[in-house]
Design brief:
Radius of gyration: 17 Å
Number of domains: 1
Structural class: mainly alpha
Number of strands: 0
Distance between the termini: 33 Å
Helix content: 55-70%
Length: about 160
């Protein structure tokens, strides 16, 4: 999956009601849905992209560590804004355990949707380097974009109408 699709999956999860669990729920879901793609930075260090992509940051250890790190960052961001007096008053209070749950859901959505495409993902890295793929959609799928973006916009419009 491309990152637009992962972002829209996080946004769709939020619009489905999960964003109401905690302040910063929506941004946490969107970031979490993309965070396993941190491995894309390996190209900066000269490592071949396919050598590292969709491996370690998509495996079981990362699925446990990344949500915890993201939650800590989001809580830190909320506290930093509060200290500076820049925290929006309309934002719901940040509930750490709920935020952690959202981070887990968003992070787990990433390999689940990467698995659906023809490129695949190494779900068990670093324990096994086997590639798994569902072969049901291409990495960039215009129809999935249309469905996710359309569903999100429809839901936002309904939310604004009450």
């Amino acid at each position: 999956m491309d990152n637009l699709t992962h972002s829209m999956i996080g946004a769709a999860l939020g619009q489905a009601g999960l964003k109401k669990l905690s302040g910063l729920g929506m941004p946490t879901l969107i970031i979490a849905a993309n965070i396993p793609d941190l491995d894309a930075a390996c190209t900066v260090y000269g490592i071949q992209s396919l050598e590292m992509r969709r491996g370690l940051t998509h495996g079981p250890i990362a699925m446990l560590v990344l949500p915890v790190l993201l939650t800590a960052i989001m809580i830190g961001f909320d506290r930093w804004q509060a200290r500076r007096g820049k925290r929006p008053e309309a934002r719901a209070p940040v509930r750490p355990w709920h935020l952690l749950l959202l981070a887990f859901i968003g992070t787990l959505s990433h390999p689940a949707f990467d698995w659906l495409n023809n490129y695949g993902v190494r779900l068990l890295e670093p324990f096994a380097s086997t590639w798994y793929h569902g072969d049901s959609i291409f990495i960039i799928d215009v129809w999935m974009w249309a469905a996710l973006i359309g569903g999100y916009l429809w839901s936002r419009a309904a939310e604004r109408r009450g």
